Amino acid sequence: MVDLQTQYTRLKSDIDTAIGNVLQSGAFIKGPEVKCFERDLAQFTGAKHAIGCANGTDALQIAFMALQAAPGSEVITPSFSYAALAEVLHLLGLKPVFCEVHEDSYLMDASKIESLITDKTIAISPVHLYGQCCDMEAILAIGQKHKLYVIEDTAQAIGAVYTFSNGTSQQAGTMGHIGTTSFFPSKNLGCYGDGGAVFSNDGVLAERMGMVANHGQKVKYLHEIVGINSRLDTLQAAILQVKLPHLRDFEARRNHCAGVYDSELGQIPGIQVPKRVANSTHVFHQYTIKLQSHEQREALKAYLIEKKVPCMIYYPTPLHQQQAYAQNLHMELTENLCKQVLSLPIHTEMEEEQLHYICSTIQEFFKA
Question: Does 82 sit behind a cis peptide bond, omega within 30 degrees of 0 on the bond before it?
Answer without folding.
Answer: no
